[in-house]
Specification:
This protein is of the alpha+beta class. It contains 6 helices and 13 strands.
Length: about 290
């Protein structure tokens, strides 16, 4: 009986020792069992705050950039808007150029009728012609011969009233058939025609007496040649190109003879010019 009891006590102690070692073994933090899983769990725990960090940073950057993007949006197309505004601001100047082209029949045909004389001319690319027949006011064609307008020594002086290429310097007018080159030095005026073409000089007062009953105003009828790259489109996109009619490919406008409304100067310096091929050189003391 004593031996059996000793065996039981020994067995109990042995089981206790083995179980104690087992639990101690599993509670040991240095135990290598499942080490990979524990490391992975620890890493996941440390990395968890970083999840979606890139998206959060990008969202914050986008929020910070919104005011700047709004301002940059205002710059979109800025160059085009500036160009359009400059083009619009220059329209009145451009309209003057287009009006001169229409007056001289550039890129088409212009019928010019002077009043009160009723004298009629056809202009093609700056050159005046006379129709030896009837002019079709819708097409600008001549039923007879179309001959260049020339002024000779035997021509009446009133023929000079129909030309609009001239210069005015200190009450002295110089008119040229094909343009003029004028030099003024100490009030001495020299008038020379382009290519030695004839010229006409007169005081402003004498010009008014000569021309007021011949060419006080002019009617212009411009018919563009749409196949010419030099033509002025009618109707025109430039709002400052004024046509008194609304017909397509026909522009009608009137002009007064500005020289008849120009006043003489008793002192001081005055010069004015208009038309094609007009050059002025001024020197001396005034």
């Amino acid at each position: 009986m004593g031996i059996e009891l000793e065996k039981f006590i020994f067995f109990t102690i042995l089981v206790h020792m083995v179980c104690g070692q087992f639990y101690a073994y599993n509670d040991d933090p240095y135990n290598l069992n499942n080490l990979g899983s524990r490391i992975s769990a620890q890493v996941q725990s440390q990395v968890a705050p970083l999840q979606g960090l890139g998206e959060r940073i990008n969202a914050q950057v986008q929020r910070n950039l919104q005011p700047l993007q709004s301002r940059l949006g205002e710059l979109d197309g800025l160059g085009d808007r500036i160009s359009a505004q400059v083009h619009k601001d220059l329209e009145p100047v451009r309209a003057i150029e287009l009006n001169f082209k229409m007056r001289d029949g550039v890129g088409g045909t212009t019928i010019v009728t002077h009043q009160p004389s009723g004298r009629q001319f056809i202009y093609n690319n700056y050159k005046p012609f006379i129709c030896k027949g009837t002019v079709d006011i819708k097409t600008g064609t001549c039923s007879g011969d179309l001959v260049p307008f020339e002024i000779t020594s035997s021509s009446p002086q009133t023929d000079w009233c129909y030309l609009r290429s001239y210069s005015l310097i200190n009450n002295q007018i110089c008119i040229g058939l094909k343009g003029v080159s004028v030099t003024s030095f100490n009030n001495q005026i020299t008038c020379k025609g382009v290519g030695d073409s004839p010229t006409f000089t007169s005081s402003l007062d004498d010009y008014k007496k000569l021309c007021s009953e011949v060419s006080a105003s002019s009617e212009y009828r411009y018919i563009p040649d749409v196949n010419s790259p030099q033509h002025v489109a009618i109707p025109n996109q430039n709002a400052h190109v004024k046509c008194e009619n609304r017909d397509k490919n026909l522009c009608i406008f009137h002009e007064n003879n500005s020289l008849l409304n120009t006043y003489s100067t008793s002192n001081g310096f005055q010069y004015y010019s208009t038309g094609n091929n007009v050059n002025i050189n001024v020197g001396g003391t005034y």
